[in-house]
């Protein structure tokens, strides 16, 4: 079976990304002559994550890529032979070499759908040996993706629908695969972009990013930037006000004194320093240094006006002039702001004049970061550019944001630059759901909230009326899911050879519902969700407007419900290894998430102490005969345990 040919295939799981007992069971099935028995498994979870009332189905695209590419290579089979008993029949390994998923059929919840306990995210049917081998990889692909997507959706609900959410937790993710998965499925769950460049390349996730403290602290303020005009092999244009003899330093060549030949360009303040080439000690790729310093003034850092007309302006010099005005306004000495920080801001502004942002807390927000930012931002403003924001990463974030907003408003009035009043403010520093809620509700001065260890930049929106919070960056709290690190999905056998199979166990919560099933979602006349219903696959489907008897979780008696709408939940995705129809794009699945969440009632959407959404069973499923054992014969009429867990 040919693998799907697209860039995302690089992220597909390999067949041996599995537990050893899948291979030992495969050998057992083969020895028992049961390798090709028709079997069906269901993948589901028992409890909603994070104490909530919903989850999101995710990972289906990865599962499809994995199944379509599934094939044991010679190296895979050879390794299995090394860990299985040495007397294993070689014919078994030949059987493994022939395996693929050409006889596998998959029904699934569409990616981005709401998922509830007990409702299958995947139904996988095919030869018993093959579908058993698929258990661990499918659990691995679905569980974390669904967990991250659900976590992202919760953060989206806290932030509100209008604010932009940025994921930037790659450095805190559980390895490279975890980082790629988190970036992909946080986008599906409602985030707008990611700092993860690979997620952009392989998955089409919008990417964004700015600068870190290392960029700011790498500058001392004494650097001599390169001339923006590239030197030729004949000469270099250099700024100088007092030229001294220079030393030419070649690769491995002792320094020698060189007499410069000078010619000044009228009106530029520049001279041409020409070297006579062909000297035996001048090697190719000559590097020139000055000793003593050849420059008495740094090279101008020129920036053209935003309108594209007029000569370039020395941005560093202009920022220095503005710094004097800003320090006077703030009551600071002009020597207090750190010169290296200002040099870093100038360097970043030269690289991104239309997307300049200042990171204010590398040294001191009040005495250095804020005045340096204002100086560079006002210098850019003279040239027609506007700064896009500032960021804080330490201290009392909300209090500092409020103080900075006051300074921006006062400076906007003092220097007659109205746009400065609404420059967005970003904050970051390992913010959890509780802190996010406080910032989102009380932080009217905060435009960006970053959770994690970094922050990603995007083009910022103007503050909305009533709240200036419009961009929120989240890292650690979305990728690591600290409230619950695992969704706890399971993959259970429900039928073999057309006969139902059931796990009883000593723990009622771990008992399974037997038989091949269908699932439906019942909706009210206003489109709100009433409940999900499981039934045996051979039963007639529920009909809109007709009464339906359903066993709620843990009930002793059925209830009657009359749905206005009935939606089948499980989509035939793969049939005999063939894709039945194209999968929705990641963006389409992301839109489905928001549509699905809008259908949840406020009681079920509530993040703290929500009402539990009900998943009921039709009577034929509740009384499905599996075995004549006394334990099963005396069970409660409903096989659905209390609390909604199946």
Q: Would you write up a description of this structure?
A:
- With 646 residues, this protein is an alpha/beta fold.
- The strands form eight sheets. Strands 21-20-1-5-3-27-28 form a seven-stranded antiparallel sheet. A seven-stranded parallel sheet has the order 7-6-19-18-17-16-15. It has a four-stranded mixed sheet with strand order 26-22-23-29.
Proportion of residues in extended strands: 15-25%
**Annotation, overall tally of beta strands:** 29
Calculate the mean pLDDT score and round it: 82
What is the SS-derived class? alpha/beta
Largest sheet: 7 strands, antiparallel
Q: What spatial form do the alpha-carbon principal axes imply? A: elongated
- In whole angstroms, the N-to-C terminal distance is 35 Å
Summarize the amount of helix as a percent range.
25-40%
User: Order of strands across the biggest sheet?
Assistant: 21-20-1-5-3-27-28
Name the poorly predicted regions.
2-7, 228-299, 451-467, 623-646
Radius of gyration: 33 Å
Total helical segments: 19
